[in-house]
Amino acid sequence: MNLKEKFAWLPGERLEVGMYDEAIHKGKAFGEWLEGLKHTHQGSPYAGMTQIEMIKSKILAKSSGKLVVPTAFDELMAHFNLNIGGAASDSLGKFFAYSDSSVLLGEYISQVVAASLIRTSLASELTALQERISEVDFRRTYFEDAGEDLELAEVSKDQELPDIWINIGDQSMRLIKYGRYLKANFEDVDRVSFNALNVVLNRIGMQIGVAETSEGIRVAVDGDGNSNAATTFNPTTTNTLNTTEVIKLATELDTPYQTTHLIAKKDQMQAYLAAAAGVSSVNGPNLLGAINVDSPKWVDWDKGNTGLESDYILIMDSRYCLGNVSGQAVFVESERLVKKQLKGTGIWYRSAFYKIDNNACKVMDVTFN
After folding, report:
1. CB-based contact 101:189 (threshold 8 Å)
2. What are phi and psi of 366, to 5 degrees?
3. Can you tell me whether residue 351 is helix, strand or coil?
4. Which of 73, 103, 157, 314 could, after both became Cys, cross-link 15 (CB 3.0–4.6 A)?
5. Dist. CA 365–CA 363, nearest whole Å
6. What are the tens digits of pLDDT across the range 6-64?
């Protein structure tokens, strides 16, 4: 039985590495392209989703105890009986048992890295919106209005409505490319187990997720290059954090913004938590419950270049502050993989952040002398 007889939605009888090029030409990852073919023929719950969205959907279904519907890629992997987990997992050489199955290796690597990226990166949590683009360059969307117009006070019939401008940035911004080169000796490829490969791929995804998160925090603090660094304010008491500063951090953003996240390096976060414990010892984990039932989530982040080097504590309303653009998929140089040329095989992800509303974040300088 050829593949076309079992998977009627395939465009031909064979899987070919050139299909990756066709997918990329359409601005999609290989697994997304397969899903589109399947949906056209028989329907799919993953239709229109990006690679990242499909993986998130499956993770959510599994964590909720629901049936995880296999994707088109999952069905092809099962067809070749590839055991990719556990102590008895197959070796990587099994992918190369058939020319068709070898084509799947690129998407397999891509999805494992993407899943690890999702587990590590805080991009979706810290941004008001995420958008997919297929280009390398983009222009940011942002809005601005006068401070007094934020309140949207009642307007009499002879007054003009207050303005809020939706702007497209004048400067072109570029996505940052994160990635690694996967290397192995030609003669070792067949003997590498899936378990060992998964560890390496998960680590690559984790590193990309850390770098992406650090960049998002840096943009929130330093701005995106358009003179929009976060406003800095100082604590009331020098060289210490006390309950007064905890209250100030929770209430510093102008109404109607709310501090959804509080981000700092570990030393500053420990000082903040020690002071916050004195504010509300009766509310347990909800340390600021006495101040605001929607108390901010705290994140200690010492990784990468975040703009927190001056010992800042960043407060932000993640519903408005940042936007994120990315390819929404991890890409792999699949042709090299099919030819067992792991040496120099690139794995990469593109992403960038920009400021939407600079009123939605501020930083407290808590430099301890």
Report:
1. no
2. -115, 40
3. strand
4. 103
5. 6
6. 999 999 889 998 899 899 888 899 999 999 999 999 999 999 999 999 999 999 999 99
Cα–Cα distance between 161 and 345 in angstroms, integer? 57
Measured between alpha carbons, how far is 75 from 101 in angstroms, rounded to an integer? 12
In a 10 Å sphere around its CB, with 0-12 CB exposed, 13-18 middle and 19+ buried, how is residue 171 labelled?
exposed
CA 102, CA 86: separation in Å to the nearest integer?
A: 21
pTM: 0.85
- pLDDT (0 to 100) of residue 318: 96
Tokens at 239, concatenated: 């060289």
329 pLDDT exceeds 90? Answer: yes
Say which amino acid occupies 169.
Answer: G
260 C-beta neighbours (distance < 10 Å), count: 20
Closest CA to 231 of 78, 359, 93, 65: 359
What is the C-alpha to C-alpha distance for residues 102 and 287, in angstroms, rounded to an integer?
Answer: 52
Q: In the chain, count of helices (H) and strands (E)?
A: 12, 14
For 364, phi then psi, to 5°, come to: -100, 125
Q: CA separation (Å) from 163 to 102, 170, 253? A: 57, 20, 21
Those residues with Cβ within 8 angstroms of residue 149's Cβ, 6 or more apart along the chain or in another chain:
162, 163, 164
Place of tokens 């003179």: 227
Q: Look at residue 345 in the predicted model and tell me its pLDDT.
A: 76
**In this structure, which amino acid lies at residue 9?**
W
Q: Which two tokens stand for residue 271?
A: 């000082």
Domain ranges (residues) in the chain: 3-130+173-218+326-355, 224-325+360-365
Alpha-carbon distance 52 to 110, whole Å? 10
Query: Which residue type, as a one-letter code, is found at position 292?
Result: N
Give how far Cα 195 sits from Cα of 85, 128, 206, 228, 302, Å: 6, 36, 16, 45, 30
Q: Is 20 strand, coil or helix?
A: helix
pLDDT of residue 145: 63
Measured between alpha carbons, how far is 216 from 318 in angstroms, rounded to an integer? 11
Tell me the C-alpha distance between 232 and 255, whole Å.
17
